[in-house]
Amino acid sequence: MSNFFKVFNALFKELSMNKNGLNGYDLDCILVSSMYAEQQSAYLNSYETGLSVSTIKKLVEEYWDVYDRDDALKILTDLLHRNEDEYVDFVYKALEDESNYEALLKANLPTDEGAFEYYIDLYRSLGNTVPELIEENVISHFSELKKIKDSGWNLGRAAFLARCCFELGHLSEEELKDYLSKTHTALKKYCGTWREYTISYIFGRSIWGGANNDGMISIADTLLNDDKSPLKNKAL
User: Fold this and answer.
1) Where is the DUF1266 domain positioned along the sequence (predicted)?
2) Is the distance from CB of 147 to CB of 126 less than 8 angstroms?
3) Chosen domain end from 145, 171, 186
4) Angle between helix 151-167 and helix 194-209 axes, rounded to 10 deg
5) Measured in Å, how far apart are the chain's first and last C-alpha atoms?
6) What's this model's pTM, rounded to 2 decimal places?
7) Do 33 and 76 have their domain in common?
8) pLDDT per residue over 161-202, tens digit each?
9) Could you list the residue range(s) of the whole structural domain that residue 21 is in?
């Protein structure tokens, strides 16, 4: 199923809920994966995704290059810690100080040419993305992104990928529960509400995937406001 039809289905069908779903803290942790899960029309409230093995295998292998346990652990570790990159903070500061951005970046970014270009590209991408999100009423000002960054994007994908890896046998249930707990703890360092989580997810997707956020914005609205959504009126 193409990404277009996955988003289309997510917009025009009921939320996918496992009748034997989780509760309490376990549910809190699984909800870190909710934006990605809803994109894929997967269960929102259980370790199991409800997707076929062939669908999960295709997603994990073709989109994430994960073929075994070692691959899974490598990418899951990277996603869990991706928002701890101190250089990204200087990129955000440069966006706030346009008159001095060049000197700020040169003084604080890595001297390695490849790494430097990576952060310069990120700076340019942010410069394009923030006005789009303001125009789409996702945010009203760049300051709303300074703390949350793209944490929801990184940790949300991490949590859902971990669920998929569990179903393929790359992680045990205990390893999955421990990992999801870590993603929830990490998310709370950046986001104070589930609304902020959805904003940071949309933000991250915009940075790496470009404009056209209507589908993601609609998914976020459904997760936050649908009476059947486990995120509605729920504290992070």
Assistant:
1) 61-233
2) no
3) 145
4) 90
5) 32
6) 0.91
7) yes
8) 999 999 999 999 999 999 999 999 999 999 999 999 999 999
9) 3-83+149-225
